Amino acid sequence: MRFDKNCVLVTGGGSGIGRAACLAFAREGADIGVADVSAANAEATAQAVRQAGRKAVVLSVDVTSPPSVQAMVQQALTGLGQLDVLVNSAGVREIIPFLQLPFEEWQRVLAVNLNGTFLCSQAVAQYLVTRGQGGKIINLASVAGLSAVPNRAAYVASKHAVVGLTKEMALELASKNIQVNAVAPGVVRTSMTESYFDKESVMERLKQAHPAGRWAMPEEIAELILFLASPAADFITGATFPIDGGFMAGKGL
Ligand SMILES: NC(=O)c1ccc[n+]([C@@H]2O[C@H](COP(=O)([O-])OP(=O)(O)OC[C@H]3O[C@@H](n4cnc5c(N)ncnc54)[C@H](O)[C@@H]3O)[C@@H](O)[C@H]2O)c1
């Protein structure tokens, strides 16, 4: 199995892409720290990991809070004994036109998506550097980190910043054998996007936006995350990979 004897910490592990990543890593032999602001959802993922035969530690965390993030890393190390991989999947998104976007909402989205990625990555990277055996960090960017999407100014800004932070961390951590990359999904069906699927007209627009003619399921994104966390990706760092059914390849006429 690809991740035998590995320990993986996944923020946002209680739902969607983070949950799918936890289960995929467990299937490949890893023990998992399931971190989420929703302890109940993290516990549900942890139970599924245990059913797959792997160890799971539930970590209740608010990724916007430095003390909470420090406690998460300490509890992960106490429960799992080591960490090899961090997946930053905790995220939130607004749908509000730029002209009406309240500053508080701007701050909320930036706090989770950008500050959270910074805080968790820094805390885990400090541990990885001290341990001296390298490691991998995978960030959740988005096609909204590579291109604008209407009515999502804070989300788009936060995901562009995640792409930049990914490059910066890769640059500064490469000599420590820590690889940092990001994945940039198109629309994935999760609780973040569930409201899109209430309306036939929105579903039709989603299909048209993706040349593949469909959206993704979280398990498909987890496979790319697993590859980037594996030794097969040891020479890949600082990169952001669209996984978007062709969304970023170009627009139709
Ligand atoms: N679903 C999509 O279409 C899509 C597309 C591109 C990128 N992404 C990104 O993928 C990541 C996962 O999204 P998802 O679709 O799985 O969403 P989701 O809502 O299903 O899961 C996000 C998780 O993050 C957790 N979270 C939110 N705020 C937190 C905080 N302060 N501290 C700790 N945990 C917190 C939530 O409780 C939730 O469990 C996000 O970064 C998102 O921006 C999603």
What's the CATH first level?
A: Alpha Beta
Supply the number of helical segments: 7
Distance between the termini: 45 Å
Instruction: Tell me the name of the CATH homologous superfamily.
Output: NAD(P)-binding Rossmann-like Domain
Largest sheet: 7 strands, parallel
Q: So, CATH architecture?
A: 3-Layer(aba) Sandwich
Summarize the helix and strand pattern as letters: EHEHEHEHEHEHHE
Radius of gyration: 17 Å
* CATH fold type: Rossmann fold
Fraction in beta strands: 15-25%
Number of strands: 7
> Mean of residue pLDDT?
98
What small ligands are held by the chains? nicotinamide-adenine-dinucleotide
- Can you tell me the residue ranges where pLDDT is under 50 for at least 5 consecutive residues? none
Structural domain count: 1
Morphology: globular
**Helix vs. strand class:** alpha/beta
Helix content: 40-55%
How are the strands of the biggest sheet laid out side by side?
A: 3-2-1-4-5-6-7
Topology:
Elements: E1 7-11, H1 16-27, E2 31-36, H2 39-51, E3 56-60, H3 66-80, E4 85-88, H4 103-131, E5 135-140, H5 153-173, E6 178-185, H6 200-209, H7 218-229, E7 240-243
Parallel strand pairs: 1-2, 1-4, 2-3, 4-5, 5-6, 6-7
Helix pairs in contact: 1-2, 1-7, 3-4, 4-5
Bound molecules: nicotinamide-adenine-dinucleotide (NAD).
Structural commentary:
With 253 residues, the chain is an alpha/beta fold. The chain has one domain: 3-Layer(aba) Sandwich (Rossmann fold), CATH 3.40.50. The chain contains seven helices and seven strands; from the N terminus they run βαβαβαβαβαβααβ. Strands 3-2-1-4-5-6-7 form a seven-stranded parallel β-sheet, with helices on both faces. Helix 1 packs parallel to helix 2 and helix 4 packs parallel to helix 5. The radius of gyration is 17 Å and the shape is globular. Bound molecules: nicotinamide-adenine-dinucleotide. The site of nicotinamide-adenine-dinucleotide (NAD) has 31 residues, from helix 1 and helix 4.
